[in-house]
Design a protein that fits this description.
Length: about 575
């Protein structure tokens, strides 16, 4: 038998099979399992109807596997005359498109009471649900309660206690136990107590039996509509499942209204909207898998106090800066139904967001290190001042207390000498660098300055570039219980669509004092340029009388006496050596 001719496309940086016509669904069982993007996914926690997914999960293990997806495709291709209608993702079906005669008969029965001919041509999920809700079974009268409601309640409350009392009473008659004087007494004979219990039990059994009969007959009446309901649910949701199972097309679709089945909503935080948010099923698995994604992730606890609903989510940050993102920061999460939750950041997985952010990372870390050192030094000085103050107070209170030895300058002479030597070496090194660069033109100094920046920020930017190219959602999905069979890459361009940053029009604040950030930046650049030019001018002025070898050679070629120039050059060289 000839193999089916599949169509392929590059989706998210990976070659995947395309499911775009009815014949693709008919031959889904022939698709090599190595070509499937997903091998299994959880039934719960997805943005596809759990009713539909449960119908596909035939073994009821809470996982939807490849064989169950294929079985669903086979079922739909048998129940529909033209499976092409699956691509409409509609919850209504043309009755003439139903191939199963039993299901078709039920559909025709439900729509025959409609007034217009056009309305009788289609059956919808709402029609079926209305028919199911309308099913009522006449309840038969049950025996009246044998006792008052409060007596029955009192009996149930004291049943165990009184039963134990009567048992103790029997043992006491045999001389095997003694009932305490303060023990509660039933106030009736055991025979009357047992009779009451039997009356209540028989009545409750009759009531429960009637409930079971009614439920059983209702289920039997509703069962007639269940195959049609199943067909309509799968007709609506199966193609969407394929787009999220075989190809991940919903995730990579450019349509803003299309979301992947694992996208739970949007997190608004730090003037940005993070659209790639997922429910977290098992945080321990995320600890091991999520860092491998290379994505900057925020984990949040979410709660809607009005409904009492809670959930734990993660949000991918793929654009912007991270300076204001920290554990404990509050935000707001909106699920796909528009319900809002109070969100609090509980954990951060730190990965590069952009190359621009990576450029400033070394300087940010260095400034943080300086800040920590300053804080530590200030804390140590504060502690020392407090210790000195308390020591003086103790000495004043107790003159006989042991005094600390005075500071011995000789003891620290070696340390001071070492510090002086280190400073001298640093000064010598800086002088050597300055001397080496003394002959550079201004544009050469600029190149050196750029090279220094690249030496500092280059490694961070290269690592960020490599990580950004490898950002992969697959480890995060794996941590959430999916079995991902291929990469789910997030490029820099695609990442920008997953996180929206706020964009304000330019406005001038009349109350704002000082310069804007750009003005400060330009001022720093101008000062640097002025200082550079000033230093270059000072250097040229100090070396204005120095005669270079090229100038001497030019004089010789001109036929002039070079001796005075050579003598001047030698004297300058000797002075520099001294």
């Amino acid at each position: 038998m000839a193999k089916y001719n599949w169509n392929f496309a590059n989706v998210g940086g990976v070659t995947r099979v395309r499911i775009e016509k009815a014949e693709d669904i008919r031959h889904l069982g022939e698709l090599d399992k190595k070509m499937w993007t997903v091998l299994s996914c959880p039934v719960n926690g997805m943005e596809i109807s759990s009713d539909s997914l449960s119908l596909m999960d035939t073994d009821g293990d809470g996982k939807l596997r490849v064989k169950e997806v294929i079985a669903t495709a086979d079922y739909l291709c048998g129940a529909l005359k033209d499976p092409q209608s699956l691509f409409e993702q509609s919850d209504s079906i043309a009755i003439d498109n139903i191939a199963d005669e039993g299901i078709k008969a039920v559909a025709e029965k439900l729509v025959e009471s409609r007034k217009t001919k056009d309305e009788r041509q289609f059956i919808s999920l709402a029609d079926v649900q209305a028919a199911i809700d309308a099913v009522k079974v006449e309840e038969k009268p049950v025996p009246a309660a044998p006792l008052e409601a409060d007596v029955i309640a009192a009996y149930k409350e004291k049943k165990d206690e009184y039963t134990a009392y009567f048992e103790q009473e029997k043992l006491q008659k045999l001389g095997l136990a003694v009932i305490p004087e303060d023990a509660p007494k039933p106030g009736m004979k055991e025979a009357d107590f047992l009779k009451m219990g039997k009356q209540i039990a028989d009545w409750e059994a009759a009531v429960e039996s009637e409930k079971l009969r009614v439920k059983s007959e209702e289920d039997a009446a509703k069962a007639e509509f269940m195959p049609l309901r199943k067909l309509l649910l799968l007709h609506r949701d199966f193609y969407r499942l394929l787009r999220n199972y075989v190809t991940l097309e919903d995730f990579y679709d450019n349509n803003d209204e299309t979301i992947a089945s694992f996208q739970a909503g949007t997190l608004i935080i730090d003037q940005r909207a993070c659209h790639l948010c997922m429910r977290v099923n098992d945080l321990a698995k995320h600890d091991a898998q999520a860092p491998l994604s290379g994505i900057y992730l925020l984990y949040c606890n979410c709660e809607n106090k009005k409904t009492g609903k809670t959930m734990q989510i993660l949000a991918a940050v793929t654009q912007g800066e991270i300076k204001n993102l920290s554990v404990g920061k509050n935000a707001v999460f909106y699920d796909n139904d528009g319900l809002d939750y109070d969100a609090t950041v509980t954990k951060i997985i730190d990965n590069p967001i952009s190359i621009r952010q990576a450029f400033w990372t070394p300087y940010r870390k260095f400034s943080k290190w300086i800040e920590e050192k300053i804080n530590k030094s200030a804390a140590e000085k504060d502690a020392k001042a407090f210790d000195d103050m308390t020591a003086k107070a103790d000495a004043a209170a107790d003159p006989n207390a042991e005094k600390k030895p005075a500071f011995d300058i000789a003891k620290f002479a070696g340390i001071f000498a070492a510090i002086g030597m280190a400073l001298g070496m640093i000064g010598t090194a800086l002088a050597a660098v300055a001397k080496g660069m003394s002959g550079f033109a201004w544009w050469q100094l600029l190149i050196v300055f750029v090279c220094i920046l690249l030496v500092i920020s280059g490694p961070s930017m290269v690592m960020a570039w490599l990580k950004l190219r490898r950002r992969n959602l697959a480890p995060v999905l794996n941590a959430n219980g999916w079995a991902i069979n291929s990469d789910a890459l997030i490029s820099v361009l695609f990442g920008r669509s997953l996180t929206e940053q706020v964009k304000f029009p330019f406005t001038k604040d009349p109350l704002k004092k000082g310069m804007s950030g750009w003005a400060v930046a330009w001022l720093v650049i101008c000062i640097a340029v002025v200082l550079g030019l000033g230093g270059w001018g000072v250097y040229r002025y100090l070396n204005r009388d120095k005669v270079t070898t090229e100038e001497v050679e030019a004089v010789v070629e001109a036929g002039e006496d070079a001796a005075p120039a050579l003598e001047m050059e030698n004297s300058v060289t000797e002075e520099a050596a001294e």
